[in-house]
Amino acid sequence: MSTTFKKMAFRAAVASGVAMIGVGAYAAQGSSATANASATIVNPIAITKTSDLVFGKLAVGAVGGNVAISTANVVAISGAGTTVSQPVGNAGNPAAAVFGVTGEAGFTYAITLPSDGAVTISDGASHTMAVNGFVSNPGTTGTLSGAGTDSLKVGATLVVGNNQVPGTYTGTFNVTVSYN
Amino acid sequence: MKNLTLHVQCRGWVSLCLRILCVLRLASCCLPTAAQNLNATGNLSFGTFVATSAGTVAVAPDGSRAQTGGAFVLDQGGLAAAAQFSVHGKANATYAITLPADNTVAMSDGKGHSMTVKAFTSNLSGLNILSKNGNGQFNIGATLNVAASQARGSYTGTFAVIVNYQ
Amino acid sequence: MTQGGRIAVRLTSFVLGLCLAALEGLTLLQARAATARVSATILAPSPAVSVVNSLPPEVSATGTVLVHMESALTAAPEVRMAEPVSAAEPAVNAATMLGSKAGDGTLKGSGMTAAVTAVPSRIGPAKAAGTDTVRVLVEFN
Question: C35 vs B37, B48, C116, CA distance in Å?
């Protein structure tokens, strides 16, 4: 391009620029939009033990058996030819374990109980009995109340052996809860 | 003074000069002059989660969620979602977006508790070109900073996205 | 980035995506656990009861049924007597068994002798003397 043309073009460009500034109106070069963001934090789930699992007092002879405690504290003894019995009127207060669960109102949670074979109780002198068949109420899923609480009852079945050695047997078990 | 526009062939050094003036907002550029329209069509939600200690909750542009540290996401309560934007402008134009810088956006529960947002990301990559009808769409995700002992509650905030022709 | 580089990135992302999808079921949960105790007390074996004496075969007779219990006890539980439930002769309406206070209570040593008093009452015509059966239930209290 010739020098003259360049000068003309340059001046034209500057002129257009000046005109633009004067009017102050030129095409917008960017657009903006705003969006909302949200997040909700809820109470963590928690569980505490209220009372222990108690099978109470049992007598047994030559043939053992199963002693089941339901979540409603009903004791049922079973087994072919079992000689297991529980004293009437002085049974030692058999009861299902009770746990308190807290968290966000209305939320549901999953309950995990011990598997069969995971829990045994011992008299501290090498004599043991297995505790299997853990059951709970609620069963596998619970719903927290409007106050964000729930009561969880846990029963199980004690396996009493033939001629089980007399004594006081104890042990522990865990219950786990988590939000669905 | 009336608006004076001068059509100049955008070639060579003239074009370069005009572009400099354009950046300085002193000249009408030889770029598409139609304004873009940017609208938020869906809000960003980090959903519902538990905060047992410090951590993060990230929502990806595809709406999926990830957690770190003491933040545990739940599927109960409000669900997570990436923000959605639609842009309209000149057909086949190339555009770029500007997202907020890390920790410049905050969310508050209205009771004095807040959380900052970082790592804004989009599902755009490479050249972003408006359709022949001048339409475009993209999603925005981000990462929420959850402090230790972050208070329970509903948190809200806003963030801005800017779109520019390239 | 080169064309080959772009392809490599896309391929890696795809494979990683598959891996992550497979791992999706392993989301970390906020779980809590609590521990409870379990307890049970095994008493001595159930008591074995044997009748030592029988009631004399007389109407309105008062007699004593001696019950001897044997068991290898380590504890000393209480025992109680249950009401008898049998009446072989229709004339014998019911036999009232009175638990012996001297017998109730503590099992001593390897056994215990409980005195049981039964008083049959006759309400019908006289019948020939017969043998009645009185059941004694002994259990830990």
Answer: 60, 29, 48
Integer Cα distance of B44 and B49 in angstroms? 15
Taking the domains of chain A in order of start, what are their residue ranges? Answer: 46-179
Burial class (CB in 10 A: 0-12, 13-18, 19+), B78: middle
Contacts of B17 in chain A (CB under 8 A): 10, 13
Q: Name chain C's partners: 3 or more CB pairs within 8 A.
A: A, B
Check pLDDT > 70 for residue C75.
no
Dihedral over Cα of B84, B90, B94, B96: its sign: negative
Number of separate helices (H) and strands (E) present in chain A: 1, 12
Amino acid found at B145 = N
Separation between Cα atoms, residue A107 and residue A60, nearest integer Å: 45
pLDDT higher than 80, residue C72: no
Instruction: With CA atoms as reference, report the closest residue to B80 among B155, B121, B141.
Output: B141
Contact A59 C31 (CB under 8 A): no
Amino acid C50 reads S
Q: Which residues of B touch A11 (CB under 8 A)?
A: none
Predicted local distance difference test score (pLDDT) of residue B36: 76
Which of C24, C29, C30 is best to mutate for the B interface (most B CBs within 10 A)? C30
Q: Torsion-angle region of residue A126: left (phi > 0), alpha (psi -120 to 50) or beta?
A: left
Q: For chain B, which domains are there?
A: 1-30 (no CATH), 34-165 (2.60.40)
Amino acid at A155: G
SS3 state of residue C81 = strand
Interchain proximity C30–B50, CB inside 8 Å: yes
pTM: 0.69
What ipTM was assigned to the predicted interfaces of this complex? 0.80
Q: What is the pLDDT along chain B (166 residues), one digit of tens a residue?
A: 333 334 444 555 555 655 566 566 555 455 555 567 999 999 999 999 999 999 999 999 999 999 999 999 999 998 999 999 999 999 999 999 999 999 999 999 999 999 999 999 999 988 899 999 999 999 999 999 999 999 999 999 999 999 999 8
Q: For residue A41, which residues of chain B lie inside 8 Å, CB to CB?
A: 48-51, 146, 150-153, 155
The shortest C-alpha distance from B112 to chain C (Å) reads 26
Domain A46-179 falls in which CATH fold?
Immunoglobulin-like (2.60.40)
What is the pLDDT averaged over residues A115-137? 97
Dihedral of alpha carbons A125, A126, A129, A132, sign: positive
Which chain B residues contact residue C30 at CB under 8 A?
Answer: 50, 52, 72
